[in-house]
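Run log, item B.
One chain of 669 residues. Sequence copied directly from the ordering sheet:
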Amino acid sequence: LMRICASFPSQKAKSIQPYASLNQRHSHVRSPNHLNPNFAKFYSTQTTDQPNQVTKQKSYNSSNVSLNQWKRTHNCGSLRADDVGKEVTLSGFVASRRDFKGIYFLVVRDGYGITQLRIQEDQVQKLGVDLGSLTIESSIAAKGRVIKRPEGQQNSAMSTGDVEVELSGLQILNVSAIVPFDNRHEDMAHEELRMKHRYLDLRRPVLQRNLRLRSKVTQLVRNTLIDRGFVEIETPVLFRPTTESGAKEFLVPTRQKGKFYSLPQSPQQYKQMLMSAGFDKYFQVAKCFRDEGGRADRQPEFTQVDMELAFSTPEDIYDVIEDLLCKIWKQVHNVDVPRPFPHMRFAEAMERFGADKPDTRFGLELVDLTKFPEILAKFPGNEISKRVVGFNLKKGNKHLSKRVLEQQLKQAGLEESVVVKFSSLDAEWKGNSIVKSFTPEDRFNLKNAFQLEDDDILILKSGPRYDAHQLLGRLRLNYAKFLGDLNEISIPHDQYNFLWVVDFPLFSMETPGEISSTHHPFTAPWPEDSHMIDSPSDDEILKIRALHYDVVLNGVELGGGSIRIHDPEFQLEVFKRLKLSEFQIGQFSHLLEALRHGCPPHGGIALGFDRLMAILCNASSIREVIAFPKSITGNEIMTGSPGEVTKDELGEFGLELRDDGKKIGEKLR
């Protein structure tokens, strides 16, 4: 409201409305001509028997302007005090306009910055253009002389704020229709509206900076890897459907009846076959696809910096990635990141932080109470697999009302946890039956283990190994953000805690009795653990450690990789352990054949490039670093993608839509 009120005309300075031309400022009739000033050029309303009928008048929007006479000499972010006196030509979009005491001001913007143009009242007629038709976001070319701004009128918020351009010529290249939102204030337009008009949204300086920086970082990645002897090789986008991971694939129908391509979730299998082909250092900036729900850090199509090295060890991968990331941070933020990055075992990360991608910029660590069997016994559950984990909400009784505490616990999935509000004045702890069963020795051990102080709230959760850790890990992050907003703890945005998380389990069991690959089925185990693949015991299988590594920054996984299985017989055994059918194993026959023909040991990694750029740009979502992203629902709102097709088009692929609730695949099987 303050911005709107500030834009109203006053006696001192008349601020021109950004959404209409000058001759429309006081119009209260929203006719089609008013909605789009271009319509006024093409049509004129006629008095006829049919009042809504219009007669077309040919008039073109300066489409035949010769730009040879208007070649820009400078961009809109480059002029400085040293340029005073120079004759310049600028091109860009009208960002704002106003008149003040007979002087007209236009602010012109391009992808490099903004510059203020100054037009004296007696110059308006000489320019030979109709300023009344000039709307916000129109594209123009302007000629003039660089002059110093009058004393006291400098704008330190603009890189060009010491100067302005006194116009001698102005060419309107294309008059903009009335824009649906004001680009100067991104918070005034809903994201869905900005996505629908993404070409306008992309004119915002922050998005211009993000995408231009993305281009520079992409070039740095390529140069760094090529200098290290890597070869950039493109792999196919049309692949075959496989059972590579839990994520769903996009299927692409073909005109061969019953046969489909899939869009690859990664170039994983192709790059392993490139190792067999003798390309010992491969990389590509790869487009990948996953058919999954959108989140702030997920898109159905995304970009990876993908690489693979033959005859490699994990240390070789660490060296390449650390060198690459350090160069990126030096160029973008001028920060010298120390090397080597510290390492943390998966088990330690889960037990201390409740996450396999820990944010180590702050403490607030979890405590596993397994070392206190007397306390453990007071919680229900399987005595073999049970864990009891706790987290101290420091000063939670001071900062959290009962309602907010319940919200924090619900967001983390901890509604059934044990809650203890600690006070040194209480001889007995208040809580449920478990709390009341704590002996004086139990209370002493808990107080020391969690360093409890007055107004602290202790949250205890029992469950299978890592289940309770993950829930409390979510609470840790939520509460840390809450305390950070209150300035109770410091979480510096310019502190970069890079970390390697290693020694992941090769297999996981998210559903009882169902073993799955923690990373993907091509990950090699530690050599010392490989013999356990033949064990009939699931417990033994789950103890196998993987040669898998993730690079993490401040709680965000930047990328993950592993040393791969190069023994075809061991790879086949892994497939069988995962209970793949003969048909599913057959989907990997090409890879097994490549391994049988002398494929060398190899390993690799993929960096999530969109996520990396979001961190470098301090963006809240990866959508802010992608030119044309999908929405949370997976739709591309601007073009209406995905779109419907006709029955005839479906028929060309032998497909039809069914609405009887049955899966199409049921009939095929």
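Observations after the first pass:
- Residues 1-57, 664-669 have pLDDT under 50 and may be disordered.
- The CA atoms of residues 259 and 268 lie 22 Å apart.
Flagged for discussion on Thursday.
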